[in-house]
Amino acid sequence: MTETSSLRIEGLSVGYSVKGQMQRILDNVSIEIGRGEAYGLVGESGCGKSTTAFAALRYLPRNGQVESGRILIDGHDVYALDTAQLQDLRRRSVAMVYQDPGRALNPSIRTGRQLAEVFELLGEQRADWQRRSVEMLERVRIRDPLSVMARFPHQLSGGMQQRVCIAMALASNPSLLILDEPTTGLDATVEAEVLDLIRQLRHDLKTSILFISHNLAVVAQMCDRVGVLYAGQLVEEGSTAELFRAPRHPYTAELLRCLPDRNRSKADAPLSTIPGFLPLPGSITQGCIFAERCRLADPLCRAVIPEAKWSGDGMSRCHHEDRIGELRATGTGLPSASREPGLGEPVLELHQVSKTFGQSAHHIRAVSEVDLTLREGETLGLVGESGSGKTTLAHAILGLTRPDPESTILLDGKTLGARLADRSLDQVKAMQIVFQNPDSALNRSHTVRRMIGRTISRLLNLSPEERTRRIEDLTRAVRLTPRHLSARPRQLSGGLKQRVAIARAFAGEPRVVICDEPTSALDVSVQAAILNLLVELQSSERVSYIFISHDLGVVRYISDRIAVLYLGRLLEVGPAKAVFEGPHHPYTEALLSSVPSIEDRPAHRVRLSGEIPSATGPMTGCIFHSRCPRKIGAICETQEPPRLQLGPDHVIDCHLPQDRLGRN
Amino acid sequence: MTATAAPEQDRTTQKSAPRSLASRLVRRPSFVIGAAITLFWIGCAIFGAALVPYDPFETDVMNTLMPPSAAHWFGTDDLGRDIFSRVIVGARDILTVAPLATLLSTALGTALGLAMGYFGGVFDEVMSRLVDAILALPTVVVALLALTALGASTTTVLFVIGFTYVPIIGRTVRAAVLSERGLDYVSAAELRRENPLYTMFVEILPNVMPAILVEATVRLGYAIFTVATLSFIGFGIQPPSPDWGLSIASSYGLIGGGYWWTVLFDGLAIATLVIGVNLVADSVQGALND
Amino acid sequence: MKRLLLSVATLWLLSVLIFAGARMLPGNVGRAMLGPFADARAVEQLNHELGTDRPLLEQYATWIGGFVTGDLGESYAYRAPVAPFLWTALLNSAKLALVAFLMVVPLGLLGGTIAALYRDRAADRILSALGLAATIVPEFVSGIILILIFGVWLRWFPISATAPEGAGLLTQVYHLILPAIPLVLVLFGYIARMARAGMIEALDADYTRTAVLKGLSYPRVIWRHVLRNALLPTISVIATQTVYLIGGLVVIEILFQYQGIGSLIYTAANKKDFPMLQAGILSIGILFTATTLIADLLYALLDPRIRHGGDE
Questions:
Q1: Using CB atoms, which chains have 3+ pairs under 8 A with B?
Q2: What secondary structure does DSSP assign to chain C, as a single string?
Q3: Can you tell me the distance from the alpha carbon of C135 to that of A486, in angstroms, rounded to the nearest whole number?
Q4: Which residue of B has its CA nearest to A496?
Q5: Cα–Cα distance for residue pair C223/C231, rounded to 1 Å
Q6: Considering its fold, how many domains does chain B have in total?
Q7: Subunits in contact with chain A (3 or more CB pairs closer than 8 Å)
Q8: What is the pLDDT of residue B1?
Q9: Which residues in A lie closer than 8 A to residue B10 (C-beta atoms)?
Q10: Which class for C153: exposed (0-12), middle (13-18), buried (19 or more C-beta within 10 A)?
Q11: Can you give the pLDDT at residue C234?
């Protein structure tokens, strides 16, 4: 008997015992991955994606337990193996790569030794270890394998560490490779490189892949078939092309419509959202697991668990598969953001803003000579990879960090003091921030009422009654209910917490609100709701936003203008449409083409090689020259690039002549 | 209602409010045992003098060094005093000095740690050196030095131990404050112009309270340890108190002669009390980490 | 280098504190030594003899200047140089401390490791409970009980730590075992707890998962990937424990009549022999600071993350 599938999961149910009670995390999940096939498993946080992977490797947490079902890898029942057989399976047949490669490697052992261990386990001759290791590292396109092997993991960048992990996983030429969010946490350009590499290796090695991700676009690009996991159940499965084109389960359909992408802006239509919450594990015992949040749900859905229905290659668990089309027809009913042509007066102006950390010898220039203008009612998107100085710039504007002396920041034409203490109350309350992580931004000992109320009383001069009314107004504006006012942060979900943070930012009637990656910690359906809220508040309160994000889809959706930051310098500033359509700065071009998209990819792709250099020490010429794919020559290394004026409001710092800049 | 406008569902109903610390504690057997032992000795300290069969200070030259018997359950010491009565009443001084010293050091250490962690900079640097300097010496030695200079008495022991523990508690609180200091809610407070005292005591302090609570209960155990030790070497609680450490000090020369009961019961009293307090401390720490 | 300067600064501060404690707190040293009923002229004369009537700054300068050059001053009580007494005492204490450390370090590491490997099972609970109890019981209490059991009733060990004159190494060690056990008990809990925490952190780490999923056998995962990362931080913990050890020595040396640094300080305190007391206490501070410094350096040497800084 020959086994045709690399991985076969049959009716898998997994429970975790939490405080003495079993909670079911996975419920009757069946997945089959054929030889050489790439299967994507998508879902929001907490849906059981990683649990599936670790169950397959028989590596569940101490409180986890397979309650029923079988898992076969290469035809071997994983849970029927003895210890030696299980070790052998892990050595030869299956490998795994996961998120956060910096932790996946042992910090006190040189990478070469860790890689060689795989060959040691395969029983190869000691003499061959080094040669084989070098081969593997070359395979994952590491240019200088010997020097990488001599280093400790912390001496490598995140992208390099992940390559080493992939090399280690593929060294035994396994028939199944499990990738659990392998690029989450990496920068966009690095992510693109790693995904390219995985695609290439898959092609060369014919390994089957189980690819787990929360990112629909990444899965769309990497996989042949996709399964959608919701609250521990596989609700839909199908070929990638079919599933994304014509989803057959309401959850999939709704999820796809939550995604902001480069073709949508707030001027077109509000994003669609999914009401309600992911149900707690085991809380729904009757009917369809999605019924509570589904716009198609009827009494049948709440009473009877839908069977898996197959048609062709695809499976869906829905009673009303035929009515999915109705979901598309239903509009959200909200008016799209009102766009007035001709924007208002400048509110905030930055001239030559820099921030240097550390002393003369080891200084790091986090932000360098930034010029920017923010107009009334406008949203300025600030994009850049990690280390580009986005947050430092925001803190300098707010007065939380003191910029270098030559920097000037003007609010309504008046120079702002460098520190908060040097600013007037009006100036302080004019600018507020929504932080990235609400767990850090909200004081966990205080109630919602206290956090909002205190901000009001510090910034506005109101009578107690007016104050109470303002708390109520704000609560309503961010769509919280009065009952939430007495809650503490730990009783709220991530989305609700971020709403509290937004209410607090708006409490003092600010003119400028800086949003520092406000949705990056949230699931897409929640993200959509928060973005809609921000758009709505902007049109009612006439505030200006500086919206910091590394997610270009989000930035495209919400911004009127976009500024691209690289190593603390602005490389391009322009209207959102112009920045996305081009002509682009070469870096913008690379950034844009690195974003995975559910639709077909653009014809040409630009990939950056090399690591982001560190901002220490002086760098002559263009800051981007060390990685620029369009470098002209020595001039890029020696001379500061000129500022090209491409449109009324669109500037690019580059040596390339205008007609040679890339476009979309 | 439309999808966008519908508020996210209420989660307050889903996530039950966390159970109170007290109810989490009583579910731990080690807490119950520890608290029972501790409460027993607190009871002895408060009511012991009224309940014991003999006056713990009354000497009886006819009945010195009597082994345990029905009349004297724990025997008598070299002055004929009833050891059982002395052990029960002996809880009083140590259970006065140690908790008060802990309270003093926790209050001062918290203030010091908050200031060091919040202000940082030169102030923190200088205070850290001072803290390091004091922590380079064992508590017993610091106390010995201070008590030699000041003269030993129950009051000085209280203050000396109180001050000696300030650096340790300060260092713990500082570490906890530092990790809070980096969180964005502190920046949010700055952005509405709170003064440092408000930020320290209203914003940060509640979040470091669990760490302080654990430190204080642990420190109470060590305060008892140290008071007993100092009393044993004659620099702590002074005669004629029936204090356990003191009694052992005056009797341990006798054990070579086989008069084991003159030290054993006092020793067991100290051991049970410190273990009881430490069980409580350990449970508090565990319950807070749940 | 910076670390060294900080240590020196700490020590200097310590010397000021000790000096302040010994000379300023008692006010009048002569009065403190002779007692409240002594004749005022006798007090004055004693102060003059001892040099304690000179300005405090001058006294401090003389003391610390002497200390740095190896002149530790003269004992009030013995009217003889402090140094020889101090060296003998330190050497004796070092022997006792060494015996204790040789017992407790392997036991503590082993106990912590076993507790972590059997996390939340009976072995872990018993080890943790015993460690907790042993750590918090004062040395003189466990010492007394040990003396009662092993010295008085069973007569397995001598109840004095001091071996007869000219005794061999084994006899000396034999005398030191019983006194060392209370110190071992106090330290065991700490070291085991730290080792357990380090082990658990390493066992739960992603790199351990990587090693298991590579197909390594469990013993090899522990031996090659876990132990090294787990026990490294315990080194610096062990170093900080020397301060508790020395604190314990004071009591143990009194209890077992042993001529070490603890009993030297104790005697000096009782006799108000301030030069002896200052020298004894400062030497403890120096020892502790040096130990932690060495431990930090050792840690840096063994941990590649510190040894090989950031990139490149």
A1: A, C
A2: -HHHHHHHHHHHHHHHHHHIIIIITTS-HHHHHH-TTS-HHHHHHHHHHHTTTS-HHHHHHHHHHHHHHT---B-TTTSSBHHHHHHHHHHHHHHHHHHHHHHHHHHHHHHHHHHHHTTTSHHHHHHHHHHHHHHHS-HHHHHHHHIIIIIIIS--S-S-SPPPTT--HHHHHHHHHHHHHHHHHHHHHHHHHHHHHHHHHHHHSHHHHHHHHHT--HHHIIIIIIHHHHHHHHHHHHHHTHHHHHHHHHHHHHHTT--SHHHHHHHHHHTT-HHHHHHHHHHHHHHHHHHHHHHHHHHHHH-HHHHS-S--
A3: 44
A4: B8
A5: 11
A6: 1
A7: B, C
A8: 29
A9: 481, 483-484
A10: exposed
A11: 82
Nearest to A155 among C207, C215, C311 (CB): C311
Rounded CA-CA distance C2/A436 in Å is 36
Judged by CB atoms closer than 8 Å, whether chains meet at C13 and B145 is answered as no
Neighbours of C197 (CB within 10 A): 17
Those residues of chain B whose CB sits closer than 8 Å to some CB in chain A are: 2-12, 14-15, 17-18, 183-185, 187-188, 190-194, 203, 206-207
Three-state secondary structure readout of A79-118: HHCCHHHHHHHHHHCEEEEECCHHHHCCCCCCHHHHHHHH
Q: How far apart are the first and last CA of chain B?
A: 40
B143 CA: distance to closest CA in chain C (Å): 10
Contacts of C308 in chain A (CB under 8 A): 151-152, 154-155
Mind listing the pLDDT tens digit for each residue in A11-70? 999 999 877 788 888 999 999 999 999 999 999 888 889 999 999 999 998 889 999 999
Q: Do the beta carbons of residue B30 and residue B67 sit within 8 Å? A: no
Q: C237 touching B, CB under 8 A?
A: no
Q: Which residues pair with A17 in a beta bridge?
A: A22
Pick the CATH number of A1-93+174-223 from 3.40.50.2300, 3.40.50.620, 3.40.50.300, 3.30.40.230: 3.40.50.300
A 5-64 residues with CB < 8 A to C: 57, 59
Pull the structure tokens for residue A177. Answer: 């490779």
List where CATH 3.40.50.300 sits in chain A: 1-93+174-223, 346-659
Residue B125: CA count within 13 A, CB half-sphere: 5
CA B69 to chain centre: 35
Nearest CA distance, B22 vs chain A (angstrom)? 18
Among A92, A104, A108, the residue with its CB nearest the CB of C210 is A104
For chain C positions 132-161, those within 8 Å of chain B (CB to CB) are 132-133, 135-142, 144-145, 147-148, 152, 159
Q: Rounded to an integer, what distance in angstroms lies between the CA atom of residue A241 and that of residue A221?
A: 10
Pairing of strands A225-230, A64-73: unpaired
Segments of chain C scoring below 50 in pLDDT = 310-312
CB contact under 8 A, C205 and A103: yes
Looking up residue B124, the CATH number of its domain turns out to be: 1.10.3720.10
> In this structure, what token pair is assigned to residue C140?
């003189």
The per-residue pLDDT for C120 is 84
Range of the domain at B270: 26-289
Distance, in angstroms, between C216 CA and closest chain B CA? Answer: 33
ipTM, interface predicted TM-score of the complex: 0.86
**pLDDT digit string (tens) for A211-254?**
999 999 899 989 999 999 999 999 999 999 999 988 999 999 98
How does the average pLDDT of chain A come out, rounded?
88
**How much of chain A exceeds pLDDT 90, in percent?**
57
A435/B11 CB distance under 8 A: no
Of the candidate CATH numbers 1.10.3720.10, 3.90.79.10, 3.40.50.11890, 3.40.50.300, the domain formed by A346-659 belongs to: 3.40.50.300
- A109 to chain C, any CB pair closer than 8 A? The answer is yes
Q: What is residue C241's predicted lDDT score, i.e. its pLDDT?
A: 78
